[in-house]
Amino acid sequence: MESRRYRSLFWPVMIIGIGVLWLLGNMEIIQPVSLGGLLRFWPVLLIVAGLDMLIVRRSSWMGALMGLLVIGFIGFVLIAGPGLGWVQTATTKTERFSANIDQASAATVVLDLAEYPSEINTLSDDDLLFDAEIRHHGVVSFTDTGTTQRVLRLAYTPAPGTLFSFGMNEEWQIGLSPQIPLALNVDAGSGPATLNLTDLNLTHLGLDAGSGPFTLRLPAAADHYNLELDAGSGPVEMTVASEADITMTINCGSGPLTIDLPNDAAVRFEVREDGSGPVTTPNWLPQIQHGEDDEGVWETTGYASAAHRVLIIIEDQGSGPVIIK
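RESULT FIELD:
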């Protein structure tokens, strides 16, 4: 007689339990600890997974019971582990870094956002050049050099042995002055980032979008400026302000790239090296040169004589879709 096979409840219980523990950590009910410390106990998963394979033919509820035991063990490590010395506590710090404009007539700002959710906005205080409130669990260094030509750098170093934090809820809020011309370079790392730059006076913008979702709102600015973007595996959404005068040089990655342009913009769009991702353009942007596959040039009527022009150059299309709208 054929034996009855049961569906294991081990992994569903594990997924639900880890989600509950993560939520409790984000609510700061459970003390945050380094995930690197938890990984010391990874052989436990092999043991229980092997036991689950042995008993799944007999009872699905035994798999559920083992899942609950594993979740209980993880919860015990999270709660009692720091006191017993089993895992390292990932302490959250909140720091503020500020710089006044003083005699500055222009500035270069370099930001390393690491893995943290970050938002960059425009400052309303006319006396401030830079202001940031940062929650993290590593070491942040901030330098401010120069007098009229200022150079500001914000860099991050993870805490030793910390791969990631279980139950951490950090966020970075960074403000920049619209009063003087800025050259801005941002490494977004692996965290989600939103850059609201519509009121800034940019002279140059260098971006490394990384693996997190990246939202960018570009200003018109007083003069023409350049944008250099290296996209990663995360989605990139870009909105261009009306009357912007900008040249974009983009190396796409595996994530989708969406560029939202004003309806009345004078646009030239070039794809110089085709990738595996599709290219989508609107009807109002006609193609004037054709190349292999998606390579080619698209240009609006009257582009050459327009007062404000948007030039988009895709150096390497990558594997993600490129959408112009």
